[in-house]
Each structure stands twice: as structure tokens, then as C-alpha cells.
Amino acid sequence: MDETESTRQLYLFQPLKQRSVEARFDGGRMTSDGGSLLVREVAERTGILKTFARCFIDHRDPDLIEHTVEELVAQRVYGIICGYEDLNDHDQVRHDPIFSALVGKEEVLASRSTLNRLELSRPASAAEERYKKIVCDFKKVERLLVTAFLDSLPKVFGRLIIDLDATDFTLYGHQEGRFFHGFYGDYCYLPLYITCGDHLLAAKLRVSNIDAAAGALEEVQRIVMQIRGRYPHAKILLRADSGFARDALMTWCEENNVDYLFGLAKNERLIKEIQNSLAQAEQLFVSSGGMPARVFTEFRYQTLDSWSQERRVIAKAEYLEKGSNPRFVVTSLSKRTAQAMELYEQWYCKRGDMENRINEQLQLFAHRMSTNTMRANQIRLWFSSVAYLLLTQLRLKALKGTALARAHVNTIRNKLIKIGARVSVSVRRFYVSFASAFAFQEVFNAAYANLRAP
């Protein structure tokens, strides 16, 4: 059915009391993503998309270019933000009038095949290729993530707590680097994420037949160097689960004035160290009538062969209805900085918030690893990362003081970006008429006011 036929087609639905219910596709130039103009405002004010576009090297003939790299990058990132997870979606999205405003292009936007060239170009042969001539500079993208974080820091800030974690991206094809992971029970990648609060500092795609901490030291070295290039005296703490409690990483931290707080996998020697504390916790459990009991203690500890020195270990001797539940962390922080209980409950346990950050990456389709090569899938991962950067800035700058100030990106998309609107274009203006019944106008007004404030 072509466009003319669809506008003539009348759809008859069940009547509403005495009234017939009729519909046609004749509303004119309309969009379901009117609220994305707020994200565009953030992008223009921060320059994040323009900087990201400069991470791509364009080998195309300038006289033959129909869609610039900046336009292609913007279209791809805004598509992810608005919930269009696949390149196939852009064969329809490219006709959406609001995307013309987002990308800054009045003509029809790029098709999926053109956008796909951003991911599939190969550095060694891009200049000679016929179509795949746009190459991503990985080092520039890595710097961009950290620079965006540094640019958002207040003039005065305290200790920077940097979280590291690994997650799994299940694979459904025969992608490069595909391996079966026993813990996750599937073929997958094992990307490394590094964050500081809401801010994403690194998203590194890795194969899954490796240690969880593989490559973490190199990423940490790069990030710390960039942070201290701007703030030489910044206090930095690395925080992660037991998969990152590796001697090489801890030794580097100790030699470079970087603190760490890592989980530590329990073993017989560790449990033996806290037998008295476990007995005390069990006694408290019994005397309280079955209430969970915790006793905190600490000691110096060194592994038999994998650690180069003794380190401070904090133990949580816990007794629950199911029995003893000991937990351990290892840290470079001194007693003067934090006592055992505070260090575990107030410092280490907050590491769990990073799960929310990773979940938000999935809401932005970071796990869509459907191209053949790891290089192309890494670029896909970074498109989601930059989409996350923009939404983080929207949350921090525009949504502060609103009901969505701590909302996840899915909630922001559904409640603030997905606004039905009619678009009209004249010589002098691009006019967007939002749906009068939009339920979150108060939040939208506050976000707009925050963005316009000096």
C-alpha cells in the first residue's frame, strides 16, 4: 500500500457509545519523538556529538558526499536514544521530520546501508575501498569518554571513586572472538565497564575466554593518566568485586598513589582467620531470636603465591538463618580513613549501583553485537556509550530537581522523549506542536528552564 492509498484507507473500530470510531493515516508531518529536542539542546551545548564525529576519519571524495560524518553519527546516536535499536529502523526513521531537526539536515536522512559504513570500514584499506571509507579512531573515542567526565566535574570535588565491572553480551551468531562462557552458560563477549558515579569512563569489548580483570590495568593506567593530566592531585579510589583483586593491579595502585577496595574470594585460610568472629556472630543470631548478625574484623593477609606483599583485609562475619555467610574485601585504605564496618557497608556495598549503570547500557542496546568483527561491534558499543553520555548530561543538567532526576534512561525515553507532535516547516521556522495531553509538561518545563539558565 503506497502513501496515497494509506491516507485514503479508513479504519473502523468498535463504536464509542453513539459515536463511530474512525482513523486514517492523514495527520500530516508528525513524530513520536518530540522530546528529543531536549537532547539536541544538550548535544549542542556540550559539543559531545561534534567531538565524537571528529573521532572518525573520512576518506571519501568531498565533492561526492551526500551525508557528512557528523550527520551520520548524529542520526545513529539519536536513533539509539529514541529507542530504534537496529539499523533497519532507519529506513523509516530517515523520513521522520524531528530527525531532520536533530541531525540538522532538511533532506531525507541516510539509509541503513550508508550508516552501516561507519562500523564496517577497515583502517588498513579504507582509502582504497569503494564504499567503506570512514574509519573510527579508537584512541580518540577512549579519550572522549574521559574528557566528557572531566568537563562535567565541579570546580571543587572530593575523592573520585572509579568502579570496574565485567558483564556478558550473549551472541547469537558466529561473530569474531565468540567463546562459550561456563558461568553465563552461553556464547558471549565479556565487556569491561569503568564508571565514576553516573559517568561512563570506558566500555571495552573483550572476548569471554579470559580472566575478568584482563586488560583492566591498561585501561586504569590510561584513565588515571588523563585525569591527573588535568587534576594532578586528584584522590582516586578503584572499587570492584573479587574478580579484580589481582596483584598486578593492586601493586600498580600502591606505586602510583591510587587507592583500591576490591572484593576478595573466600577460602579456607581466610575463614580460619575469623573463626572467633563467626562464633560471635552465631551467638548474637541465637540470642536475638534469629535476627541476622554481623561482626566486622580486620587483619593483615598475604596469599601463598599470587600476592607480592601483605595487605589489609576486612572481614564481615555474618550469620543468617541459612548459616554462616563470611565476606572479605582487600584495600589500601588505612584505618584512619575508614574503620572496618564503615569501609564495608558505606564504601564497598555502594559498588552495587554500578549494576544500574550497566543496565542502562543495555537499555541503549549496547548488547546488539550482530556484526561479524569485534572492531565493528566495538564501534556499535561506543554508539550506545555516546548516547548514554548525552542522556547522563540531560539527567544532570536538565532534570535536576525534577521527578526524573534519578530516572533510568528507559524512563526518561518513555516519559520525556516519546512526545507525539506535529511538525510544520516554513521559510522562517521549524515549528513543533506538542500533544496538548502530554502528561509530563511540568517536568519538560523544568528541564527546558534548567538548560536555558546561564
What do you see in this structure?
The protein folds into 2 domains: 30-133 and 375-452, no CATH class; 153-360, Transposase Inhibitor Protein From Tn5, Chain A, domain 1, CATH 3.90.350. The chain is globular and about 80 Å long. 39% of the residues lie in helices and 20% in strands. The mean pLDDT is 94. A hairpin with a 2-residue loop joins strand 15 (311-320) and strand 16. Strands 6, 10, 11, 12, 13, 14, 15, 16 and 17 form a 9-stranded mixed β-sheet that branches. Helix 2 (36-46) packs across helix 16, helix 9 (138-152) packs across helix 10 (216-230) and helix 9 runs parallel beside helix 16 (374-398). It is of the alpha+beta class and 454 residues long. The protein starts with a helix and ends with a helix.
State the CATH topology of the largest domain: Transposase Inhibitor Protein From Tn5, Chain A, domain 1
CATH architecture of the largest domain: Alpha-Beta Complex
Oligomer kind: single chain
Roughly what percent helix? 25-40%
Q: Biggest sheet: strands, sense, closure?
A: 9 strands, mixed
Number of distinct beta strands = 19
Average pLDDT confidence is 94
Q: Shape from CA axes?
A: globular
Enumerate the spans where pLDDT stays under 50 for 5 or more consecutive residues: none
CATH superfamily of the largest domain: Transposase Inhibitor Protein From Tn5, Chain A, domain 1
Structural class: alpha+beta
Cα(first) to Cα(last) distance is 50 Å
**Percentage of β-strand residues:** 15-25%
CATH class of the largest domain: Alpha Beta
Number of helices: 18
Count of the domains: 2
Gyration radius over CA: 26 Å
